[in-house]
Amino acid sequence: MTNLLMGLLSIDKKVKPLLISCQEKSSISLYGILLEENKTREAEVILDEAYRRALALITDEKGDWPDSLPWGWLENRHIIRTLVNKAVSLWDQGKTDEALEMFRKLLRTNPSDNAGVRYYILAIRLNMSLEKFEKKFDKGGFYLATEIDRWFEENSKKFPDEFEWWWEEVMKYEEDTSPGNSDDQK
């Protein structure tokens, strides 16, 4: 092969993952735009395809999720957003068992819970519909952290089977990051 052809093939190997990443990120953006335009059917088609691709990126041959899917790794964010949106969509359709399973996997793989799935898990466990949850907490596209955190603290203790491990992770993290507990001072 010529040097030019070899160069083009190596560029293709570098560019293809970038193009796939851009496609994944734009799919979840397009999903949001279509929802805003009340084009629910089209939005669901986009979300289903993005969800299929997201699962293909993170699961192994047996369909198992990874042990960790940290939000801090920027390449994971569009995947996490896609999975959260799919779970919310399932919840909205009344498929709470499927939604709950996905939210649980998201929380287990990312206990720092940057996406706030613990709130959705609790709402489902309290038999809230998505509509009721949004009516209670949505403040025009965002949730007030103090309000939803207080609600979570008050109600999550009712479900130790669901959240006890998570509270332990939070306590461990707080202990590990508290002043005077750094490796430099040991």
Structurally, how many domains make up the residues? 1
- C-alpha termini separation: 58 Å
Element order: H for helix, E for strand? HHHHHHHH
Please state roughly what percent of the residues sit in beta strands, choosing from under 5%, 5-15%, 15-25%, 25-35%, 35-45% or over 45%: under 5%
Radius of gyration: 20 Å
- Report the sheet with the most strands, covering strand number, pairing sense and barrel closure: none
How many DSSP helices?
8
Shape descriptor: globular
Give descriptors for this structure.
186 residues, mainly alpha, globular
Task: Walk me through the structure.
This protein has 186 residues and is an all-alpha fold. The protein has one domain (11-177). It contains eight helices and no strands. It starts with a helix and ends in a 9-residue tail after the last helix.
Secondary structure layout:
Layout: H1 3-36, H2 40-58, H3 74-92, H4 96-109, H5 117-125, H6 130-137, H7 145-156, H8 160-177
Helix pairs in contact: 1-2, 1-3, 2-3, 3-4, 4-5
Task: Describe, in short, the structure shown.
Helix content is 72%, strand content 0%. The chain is mostly helical.
